[in-house]
Specification:
The complex is a heterodimer. Chain A is mostly helical. Chain A has twelve helices and two strands. Chain A has a two-stranded parallel ribbon. In chain A, α5 packs antiparallel against α11, α8 runs antiparallel to α9 and α9 packs antiparallel against α10. The chains are: A mainly alpha, B mainly alpha. Chain A: It holds the Pfam family CTLH.
């Protein structure tokens, strides 16, 4: 399903020929009437939900939703659990475990994606440093990471940045502390997640957030031309009365 | 000392565990090997050296036997999956690994296992085979055998992505001849691939695009059938994929369209599509990975030899974009090479492109220069006038900066980059204006270029000589720089190379170097070369070397009368060699250069002209026809021109021996042959023929 900006505006009945001088005011009744005229198939909405559950890895919810709505997921649900296990392992700092799981899932992913492989190895190094295993960290950097740095200039720079963590006594308070932050784990985890999804010929991002972005963009465009019942709270999607 | 690998067994230890009698120890070791080598080239190599591949292949073979003995055993399947995955990883992007897997005899076993009932086994095996088929070392698949074609179709029809992907990889790697392309078309493969394009998954679409490009390459017949009404809306599906959201898909779709256009130029003539392709490929340069590395190569194949596309690319600011990427530095060697080659193709034809490239690096310049085209030399000193370019002071400021940019690439550690830098330089220096302004004949460029003459890679040597050939045409004052840095002596040494391409390119550079040079310089080159060596080059077994050697003689003896004496040195060794070569010239180009050499000799004194006459006639021997008549009757207008030019010089009315020589030429039937050529389709020939006939009439011939 693909919705383009202009189509989206038109489907909501936005009027584009508005005089520049005065903003047109659209009342709540008028607006709701127009919204009711827009037909969106239930199945499409269901697919959107399923796409979100599958991509984000809510396997149990996806299974329930499938049974209740009869919507077939576009991916084998079993692979979701595997993917989530990998993601979780990285998030918990068990990078080696994550690597083995990815390789069981599909050995091609890390064999053909040097950047991802490097980032996982880098994360392993970060975890060793975090745990104070300095000697191990040094040996690991030398044996596993240095050859990758020789192959690629960018990797070398990243490696140098990571290794310099060793120079600080209090790593959590050093200028490169962000590498030790939980957000670094999340970044690596989401990179692996995306690579697994791509290897399964699946989009790496769910469609729903893009649609919400589209809604905000469309409303911002429309704000310049008309006053209308806006959705300000995306989580409950209530229509606010137009401010004149 | 605690060790990161302390929990991990060493490779040699792992290897011994692979032979363990305990299935669990064995399978764990197998999995460990797999996990260590995936993504890690260094580890692949060290395991390879320890002999891990035959060990793993052995486990695979043993497990196949187990399958046949006791069906459906989890352990066995696990062995199969792990060993296939390990073999696949050894073969992934690593030719030594592919070779080892093939040598270990694993290939037929992997093929057999595609029929295994277990899905995971089939997946692992198909992946491993696909890795092998990504390499040039993969065994050639014979499509012309019926049963092979059926097997291929069964692969493509598989529901499993890995298996249909394998089918596509086999086509991409193995389909080479037109006959094979036609066989694949006749078997209905294109229809299948097209359906994968329209309804397949991401990886199926990509694999299908690659296979299609392979089947289309240089085969207009298959393309027109594919684009015909038989198969839905095929071209438009490829065009759509060129705008796909995945960069790799965009690149592959572009490459497929380029193959179609290069084979059948009448497709994709629409300017919108051409512009679109250029923009897409330039955008793909921003991709940080392999796609961005390959994009400039695709760009080159799109614009090479095509002025209309080069113009469009110029308008799309291609040169700026490439320059921007080079400036960023720390490029992957493959990308660096590709960008330099793309710049070379951009600057290969259009002066506007070269000017654009040099606007990054020009220096101020004024005055008028006279210069002939670099690679083509006419008898005597024919020169053309080119308008001088005047550059502002500001433009000149960046001269050093961008010359350094080229020089950097010339001294890069990667041989592909060095060769590409030379090719780019050669392309840019095709411009007469730029050459005559002397931008390139300076130490920044010449010194690294001359150093490349001794490069360990032949392709770099040849490319460096190619660039030198253009640069040394640079006029008058600058040539001394080339001599001072030892370039000339090096060229003579390279003319002795074992590689014929190096010999001929070295001679080419020397030929251009002596073009319209002063006598002292020519004498220097000649004494370095010596008459005996030059005559041996004229008799070289390689026709391209013969041609360049003759052209070198032609340029050496052009001009002052003293220079003509070169061909008479050591009892006329060179002249004799020219005569013998003309007698048995294997291609027109040899005749052309040989005749121009004689033509220049005949422009000397009476003694010189008589020597040429003698050569023309003594060589006739017992053959019925002189090679002169054969050349005059040639289809090649340049050969006819060169031959008539020589006759013009031999019958020049101001020389006393002319009537006598004319008589001889008449008796040999040469004059009557020339008379038949008064309406020659080539204007050059026609003009010279009229000169000969005019001179002949002056001596009373009707």
């Amino acid at each position: 399903m693909q919705i383009l900006g202009a189509d989206f505006l038109a489907s909501l009945g936005y009027n584009v020929d508005i005089e520049a001088t005065s903003k047109k005011v659209i009342t709540r009744e008028e607006w709701e009437k127009r919204l009711n005229d827009v037909k969106i198939r239930k199945e499409d909405m269901n697919k959107l939900v399923m796409n979100f559950l599958v991509t984000e890895g809510y396997v149990e919810a996806a299974e329930k939703f499938r049974m209740e709505s009869g919507t077939e997921p576009d991916i084998d649900l079993a692979t979701i659990s595997d993917r989530m296990a990998v993601k979780k392992a990285v998030q918990c700092g068990n990078v080696e475990d994550a690597i083995e799981k990815v390789n069981d899932l599909n050995p091609e992913i890390l064999d053909t994606n040097p950047q991802l492989f490097f980032h996982l190895q880098q994360q392993r190094l970060i975890e060793l440093i975090r745990n104070g295993k300095i000697e191990e960290a040094l040996e690991f950097a030398q044996e596993e990471l240095a050859p990758r740095g020789e192959e690629n200039q960018t990797f070398l720079e990243e490696l140098e940045r990571t290794v310099s963590l060793l120079a600080f006594e209090d790593v959590s308070n050093c200028p490169l502390g962000e590498l030790l932050d939980i957000s670094q784990r999340l970044k690596t985890a989401s990179e692996v997640n995306a690579a697994i999804l791509t290897s399964q010929s699946h989009e790496k991002d769910p469609k729903l957030p893009s649609l919400l972005k589209m809604l905000i963009w469309a409303q911002n465009q429309l704000d310049e031309k008309a006053a209308y019942p806006r959705i300000n709270n995306l989580s409950n999607a209530t229509l606010e009365d137009p401010t004149v | 000392m605690p060790s990161a690998t302390v929990n991990k067994p060493r490779p040699s230890e792992l290897l011994s565990r692979l032979t363990s009698a305990e299935p669990e120890v064995k399978v764990r070791a197998l999995r460990e090997v797999k996990n260590q080598i995936i993504g890690n080239r260094t580890k692949k190599l060290s395991f390879l050296k320890l002999g891990a591949v035959p060990a793993v292949a052995g486990i695979l073979a043993d497990s196949i036997d187990d399958v046949t003995e006791n069906n459906n055993c989890n352990n066995t399947n696990n062995f199969l999956v792990q060993s296939a995955a390990a073999l696949g990883s050894f073969a992934c992007g690593f030719d030594a690994g592919v070779q080892a897997v093939l040598d270990a005899g694993a290939f037929p076993n992997l093929l057999r296992l595609l029929a295994n009932p277990n899905e995971k086994v089939v997946d692992a095996v198909a992946r491993a085979l696909r890795m092998i088929y990504q390499s040039k070392l993969a065994p050639k698949y014979d499509f012309l055998q019926q049963k092979n074609m059926e097997f291929l179709i069964s692969l493509l029809n598989s529901e499993k992505e890995t298996v249909s992907g394998l089918g596509a990889s086999i086509i991409t790697r193995s389909c080479e001849t037109n006959l094979e392309q036609k066989a694949l078309f006749d078997a209905g493969i294109l229809r299948k691939l097209n359906s994968l394009l329209e309804g397949g998954s991401l990886s199926q679409r990509d694999a299908s695009l690659e296979s299609l490009a392979t089947i289309f390459r240089n085969n207009p017949e298959v393309i027109s059938k594919f684009a015909g009404p038989e198969i839905g809306r095929p071209l438009s599906s490829i065009i759509d994929l060129a705008k796909d959201r995945y960069p790799r898909t965009r690149l592959l779709a572009c490459m497929c369209l380029i193959v179609i256009r290069n084979a059948s130029p009448h497709f994709l003539q629409d300017i919108g599509i051409k512009t679109k392709l250029i923009h897409i490929l330039l955008e793909l340069l921003d991709d940080p990975g392999q796609v961005g590395d390959e994009a400039p190569f695709a760009f080159s194949s799109l614009i090479a030899q095509k002025e209309d596309l080069q113009k469009l690319a110029l308008e799309a600011n291609a040169i700026d974009k490439f320059h921007h990427h080079i400036k960023k530095g720390s490029l992957h060697p493959r990308r660096y090479e590709g960008i330099l080659l793309a710049l070379a193709d951009m600057c290969s034809k259009l002066e506007s492109c070269r000017t654009k490239f040099l606007s990054l690096q020009v220096c101020f310049f004024s005055g008028t220069n006279y210069l002939a085209q670099p690679n083509q030399v006419k008898p005597w000193s024919h020169s053309r006038l080119w308008p001088p370019m005047v550059f502002t002071q500001q433009q000149s400021l960046s001269l050093l900066q961008v010359l350094n940019l080229v020089a950097d690439a010339l001294t890069d550690y990667n041989a592909g980059v060095r060769a590409a830098a030379c090719i780019c330089l050669k392309s840019v220096t095709r411009s007469i204006q730029n050459l005559s302004a002397g931008y390139f004949m300076n130490e920044t460029i010449v010194i690294p270029l001359v150093q490349l003459f001794l490069d360990p890679s032949t392709s770099v040597q040849v490319a460096a000589l190619g660039a030198t050939s253009n640069i040394v045409v640079d006029f008058r004052t600058h040539r001394s720089i080339f001599v001072q840095c030892g370039g000339m002596k090096q060229l003579v040494q390279l003319a002795k190379s074992m590689e014929s391409s190096v010999r001929s390119n070295a001679l080419w550079a020397l030929k251009n170097f002596v073009f319209q040079a002063d006598n002292r310089l020519k004498e220097g080159v000649f004494s370095e070369l010596t008459a005996s060596f030059l005559s041996s080059l004229i008799r070289d077994p390689e026709p391209s070397v013969q041609e360049q050697a003759l052209a070198l003689v032609r340029n050496l003896v052009d001009g002052c009368i003293n220079l003509i004496e070169f061909v008479f040195a050591e009892d006329g060794l060179i002249l004799g060699a020219i005569g013998r070569q003309l007698q048995c010239a294997s291609k027109a180009e040899i005749g052309i250069q040989g005749m121009y050499a004689l033509c220049n000799v005949a422009s000397g004194n009476e003694f010189h002209r008589e020597a040429v006459m003698q050569l023309l006639f003594t060589q006739m021997g017992d053959k019925n026809q002189s090679f002169v008549v054969k050349f005059l009757q040639s289809n090649d207008s340049q050969l006819r021109t060169a031959t008539v030019w020589t006759i013009v010089n031999l019958t020049c009315p101001s020389s006393p021996g002319a009537p006598c020589r004319l008589e001889k030429l008449r008796n040999a039937g040469i004059v009557s042959q020339i008379k038949n050529m008064v309406n020659d389709p080539c204007v050059d020939v026609k003009l010279r023929v009229r000169t000969v006939l005019g001179q002949s009439m002056a001596f009373g011939d009707n």
